[in-house]
Every structure is written in C-alpha cells, then in structure tokens.
Design a protein that fits this description.
- With 122 residues, this protein is mostly beta strands.
- The chain is built from 1 helix and 11 strands.
- The protein is globular, with a radius of gyration of 13 Å.
- The strands form 2 sheets. It has a 6-stranded antiparallel sheet with strand order 2-1-11-10-7-8, with no helix packed on it.
- The longest helix is centred in the last third of the chain and has 5 residues, at 109-113.
- A hairpin with a 4-residue loop joins strand 5 and strand 6.
- 4% of the residues lie in helices and 42% in strands.
- Residues 25-76 form the FHA domain.
- Residues 103-122 are annotated as: Disordered.
- This is PSer/pThr/pTyr-binding forkhead associated (FHA) protein.
C-alpha cells in the first residue's frame, strides 16, 4: 500500500488527502509547495516529505521553519513516519494513514516509535 497523508486544519476539517509517490514534496505557504498551507505560523518552505518505494520509507524533515515540525507531539528535525503517526506544522495536522514499511519482526507502530533515538527513527 503506498503511503497516504490526510491534512486537517485546527477544526479537524479534511483539507487534502494525498497518495505519496516517490521523491520529495514540500509543505509551506509558498504557492510552489506540494501542500500549500496559507497561515502566518507556516514558513514559506516549512518542511518536506520524502518517500522511497524501493526501501519502503516515508520521512519528514523540517526545513529550518520558525515554529518547528512536530511528530506525535515531539519537535523533530527529521523523522521516519509510520502508519498512525501525526505530524503538526503550525495549526495543521498531517495524519499518516499509511506510512513506512516496518522492519521485519516489528509489531505495531508503537513498538517502532519506541525505537527512536534523538531526531531520527532507527
């Protein structure tokens, strides 16, 4: 199953539903971003998601935004994303409906989240 993201505003209203293809796509206020979020608490190029179907990895990386990028409530510079993770940029929530493939032998997303060290998931 390809990665899928659901973008919701502060009122939990669905704004975007995206099937993520290979490559990099940005999130920010700038019109050229793949996900445009027109709010003052969002930087012009706030963050970027990357996906590699070859390795089964979906990740997010903050691009030096003023207000940060948070994964499951923790501020992160970059992080591998799994099904069930929630990324917050400004007042927007990006729900990972389908994320990275888990390493063999790992159970649910919670077990994988516990393996994180610092700002990177192992």
């Amino acid at each position: 199953m390809p990665p899928e993201l659901l973008v919701k505003d502060a009122n939990a209203q669905l704004l975007h539903s995206l099937i993520v293809k290979d490559g990099l796509f940005s999130v920010g206020r700038e019109p050229g971003c793949a996900i445009v979020l027109p709010a003052p608490d969002i930087s012009r190029r706030h963050a970027a998601f990357t996906h590699s179907s070859r390795f089964g990895v979906l990740a997010v990386e903050d691009h030096g935004s003023k207000n940060g990028t948070f994964v499951n409530g923790l501020q992160m510079r970059r992080c591998v994303l799994y099904t069930g993770d929630v990324v917050r940029v400004g007042n927007y929530l990006i729900h990972v409906r389908a994320g990275s493939s888990g390493p063999p032998g790992m159970g649910d997303a919670m077990a994988r989240r516990e393996s994180r060290v610092g700002d990177v998931a192992l």
